[in-house]
Specification:
With 317 residues, this protein is an all-alpha fold. It has one domain. Helix content is 73%, strand content 0%. The chain has 11 helices and no strands.
């Protein structure tokens, strides 16, 4: 029996295919296939350091979710914070626009009976600050090189930030409209005390979440710098951070899961523009993505099994 292919599944498969084609193009054009010896030149101790920074970055995300959970009156263990945070690295990165990150809100709802919108609020603070920091750093491209694709990426990110800000400050208005609609639905009529208000955090807590997010991204920048250094290239860390931020944004704009192809291709182009040979540049990008995003994806897949089992146990009680 042939299983039907959903529209969402087809779009996701199409986006991933496009990303893989882009990645294959940059790999073929870089010349690394005929210069695989480049990989053997990597400095192992520096590679181990870069991998440790990748683990530290994941740890910062776990701590951030635990901190946010505590503010929303649900203190969770380090184990559960790790389950939900690392699992989301899988669910978020296999879906366009990282919509799979909503698994965090779902997990908190099922395991701790936290209101789904409280979980969404927590996600809002994570994503908003990540986008804000990436945009501010990527804006430094103006002082380096400004081309059409960079302008489009920055404008798209700025638009998202503006929409998120409007939604945040007018959240009660939008949630009020949604509540009037949902209360009329048969499935929601039984919820007499339906409350769709997003609880906002005070500035002191917002500042801490912002700081944790900044540390998380700084760890990402240092990791890439260490990988480049492991290949023997001492690159300008500020310029490299600007390019990496822009590559992140381009990957997000592409809507391709994991940003496959879009992020690798753009980052390879930027690193090459810093004077690194194309074969080495793509090697740097592939190694960095392997010990960060692809490693996180595999780790998230493993943790997702445990987190789903934890949800089953919670629902059976």
């Amino acid at each position: 029996m042939k299983l039907p292919v959903t529209r969402q599944g087809f779009i996701q498969l199409l986006l991933i295919s496009i990303g893989l084609v882009i990645l294959a193009y940059f790999i073929s054009q870089s010349g690394i296939i005929g210069n695989l010896w480049v990989i053997t030149t990597i400095n192992i101790p520096l590679l181990i350091l870069a991998f440790a920074l990748s683990l530290a970055n994941i740890g910062s995300k776990v701590y951030r979710w635990r901190y946010l959970s505590k503010y929303y009156y649900q203190k969770i263990s380090w184990y559960d914070a790790s389950l939900v945070s690392i699992s989301s690295l899988f669910f978020a990165n296999i879906t366009p626009g990282k919509v799979g990150d909503l698994y965090k809100a779902y997990f908190m709802k099922r395991r701790y009976n936290v209101q789904f919108l409280d979980g969404v609020s927590m996600l809002f603070y994570e994503r908003f600050f990540e986008l804000t920091i990436l945009f501010l750093i990527a804006a430094g491209i103006v002082m380096i090189q400004l081309k059409a694709i960079t302008v489009i990426a920055l404008e798209f990110t700025l638009l998202i930030l503006i929409l998120l800000l409007v939604f945040y400050y007018k959240a009660d208005f939008f949630m009020g409209l949604a509540e009037k609609v949902l209360i009329k639905l048969p499935l929601e009529r039984k919820e007499q005390n339906l409350n769709l208000r997003i609880r906002k955090m005070p500035f002191s807590n917002i500042a801490i979440v912002f700081l944790i997010t900044l540390i998380s991204l700084v760890l990402e920048f240092i990791r890439l710098w260490c990988v480049a250094l492991a290949f023997g290239f001492l690159l300008n860390p500020i310029q490299l951070s600007v390019f990496m931020s822009l590559a992140f944004i381009i990957g997000l704009v592409s809507q391709i899961p994991l940003g496959v192809g879009a992020m690798e291709g753009s980052l390879n182009y930027f690193i090459t523009s810093m004077g690194v040979p194309s074969a080495t540049a793509i090697a740097i990008v592939l190694v960095d993505r392997t010990i960060s995003m692809y490693f996180a994806l595999v780790l998230g897949f493993i943790f997702s099994k445990f987190s789903l089992d934890a949800l089953k146990d919670a629902m059976s009680i």
